Amino acid sequence: MRRFDELSEREVLAVAIANEEEDGRIYADFAEHLRGHYPDSAALFDDMAAEEDEHRRALIDLYVGRFGRHMPYVTRRDLRGAYAPASPRATIRRGIDAIRDEAQRMERAAGLFYRQAAERTADAAVRKLLGDLAAAEQDHLKTAAGIEARRLPGDSRVAEDEAARRRFVLQIVQPGLIGLMDGSVSTLAPVFAAAFATRHPHDAFLVGMAASIGAGISMGFAEALADDGKLSGRGAPLLRGLVCGAMTTAGGVGHTLPFLLGDFWTATIVAALVAVVELGVIAWIQFRYMDTPPLSAAAKVMLGGALVVAAGVLIGGG
What we know:
The protein is mostly helical.
């Protein structure tokens, strides 16, 4: 890794050109990904990519005029302490808010990088060039803000955010909630039945693990095969199946793990407390994402859980 103050003036300019090219391509990737569901944001990133391309061409013209056509290969990733954007694919996987945040971070980091580099160098020519580049990045931020105001007014931003929230609920929250409810509630009966039938916590643990894993596999396949997501808009069936299956297993394992304790009554009481916490989490998710009144959500899940536990205790104790 090299220090910034080790670069020649032509290398500094080459880094600036590489930065503009990479940023423009990243913005173009963002635009292409967002085009289907977020057309206004896609147009925003199309414009930002075009701005980066104009800056790149201007910098190339300046470079060729001063140093000729050969350009050394050096990028910000070769420089110690320089900010480098995350992979566009990694940012895209985190959703539209992460994309917007990364775009702002890229512009701010570029300006900050040039200003700090200008303060560290004693070469007057390099210092002037770095200051000019910092000012150019500040102009980028102003330009980006202007583009966003034109392309993404308040009502469009609200509509896109609401669409993103709805998609998150359909693709992640709903299958996860279904799985958590199934795992947390349906496995209570076999676990407590095994516990009261044998009075051996380890037996209840084995039954609970088998029920949790089996239910997770079953629910995962059921969710993935029930809807391909094309008409319902619920997203990729594989993702929904994985979320549903994982949450089903997690819901059952939570109140199964206490039966690793050696004492029967201690394990049973701890398992019951864990089950109450699980049911409380389900009620909170319903309130947070499904707009279910908190008291109504809590009453429903607690009543259902109590009935299932009672069934398990009665069957096992009989």
